[in-house]
Specification:
alpha/beta; single chain; Rossmann fold; disordered C terminus; binds zinc ion
Length: about 350
């Protein structure tokens, strides 16, 4: 299946290339640098660093899974007309390899945001699969800082006239990320040390947990649509009980019967666990006009959701950190409304 789809993409690219060969616009004719970004995070990075100097085309929308996303014909056309393509990297955009190769042979700059993180030695192995890179590097704000500063340099190479402006934008934003990281660290440290485990159905949160000295446990078997085995359920229930973890985070795609089985198993063991107040953002952010549609907003949403789900107050939002945290995330009731008690019949 995978091989077929790559062949199909290559064929599509060849077709599009020949269709566009007569339409190439010389770079000097464009007033702004034309940049294409793959993921929602990459698009936000280009907006932050490029500002009004860049004309941005964003390929993936809110809620799109970048691991599975295949470039469409119009995506390929957009990339063909761009001067630069910015992507996340570490094989997050698994379906783009062939297209990137063809584009870079045509002289279009293809830039991976992960590159300075990889060069710095901060890339982690994927959970349970040593030797394979975990692509979710952006969940450590210090990694995102490296990515942003690297992007400014890369933009400056393609557009040297504006290199100083890109650098200034990136440097100012890096300070915002410092404030975000300080706030998030204070927030995450408010959870009792013994309970600092993020239990989730995603494999995306390893960098996030590690950034704050937390552990991460994936819920085996719950991460897919398939029902978890009795052994999977017992294993995670035993972990929750042994470590007195009060809350777990799961996606709406996880069958309710499986979630209820975990909660039942924990209760049968004489303990109690509840679901997180909201879903966490993982591989895609929200829409650009939502709070979760920026990197800072997405990150703050996750921290606020985790900390409030543990039943702990958030620290005050830093004065000079934008966008400001919406009141609904700060003032969420500590009496958790989204307990699964009703779901298991008591
Ligand atoms: Zn992922």
């Amino acid at each position: 299946m995978k091989r077929m789809s790559l062949v199909a993409v290559s064929a599509l690219l060849a077709m599009t290339l020949s269709a566009l060969s007569g339409l190439a616009v010389p770079a000097y004719a464009q007033s702004k640098l034309h940049v294409v970004a793959t993921t929602t995070q990459a698009a936000d990075a280009v907006r932050v660093v490029g500002g009004a100097l860049v004309e941005l085309s964003a390929l993936m929308g809110a809620g799109v899974d970048p691991h599975l996303y295949k470039p469409t014909e119009s995506d390929i056309a957009a990339m063909n007309q761009a001067q630069m393509v910015v992507y996340s990297g570490l094989h997050l955009e698994g379906q783009f390899d062939q297209v990137f190769k063809a584009l870079s042979e045509r002289g279009i700059t293809i830039y991976a945001l992960a590159q300075p993180v990889l060069d710095g030695g901060y890339v982690m192995d994927a959970v349970g699969s040593a030797g394979t890179h975990d692509p979710h590097f952006w969940f450590d704000p210090r990694n995102w800082q490296l990515a942003i500063l690297g992007l400014a340099e890369a933009l400056g190479k393609v557009d040297p006239a504006n290199a100083a402006a890109y650098k200034a934008n990136a440097t100012a934003y890096a300070e915002q990320l410092d404030r975000l990281f300080a706030w998030a660290t204070q927030a995450m440290n408010a959870i009792p040390a013994a309970q600092r485990t993020l239990i989730t159905s995603h494999d995306a949160f390893q960098y996030f947990a590690t950034a704050f000295g937390w552990k991460v446990e994936a819920i085996q078997g719950i991460s897919t649509a398939a029902e978890a085995s009795v052994a999977d359920v017992q294993a995670i229930a035993a972990y929750i009980i042994a470590n007195k973890i009060p809350v777990i985070f799961v996606e709406s795609s996880v069958p309710k019967t499986t979630i209820n089985a975990v909660i039942e198993a924990v209760r049968a063991g004489g303990s109690e666990v509840r679901l997180g107040l909201r879903e966490l953002y993982s591989d895609a952010m929200g829409a650009p006009d939502e709070f979760g549609g920026t990197y800072i907003g997405m990150f703050a949403h996750n921290v606020a959701t985790i900390v409030r789900s543990f039943g702990v107050e958030l620290p005050a939002w830093p004065d000079r950190l934008m966008p400001a945290l919406p009141g609904e995330l700060l003032k969420y009731p500590l009496q958790l409304p989204f307990s699964m008690r009703g779901g298991v019949g008591d």
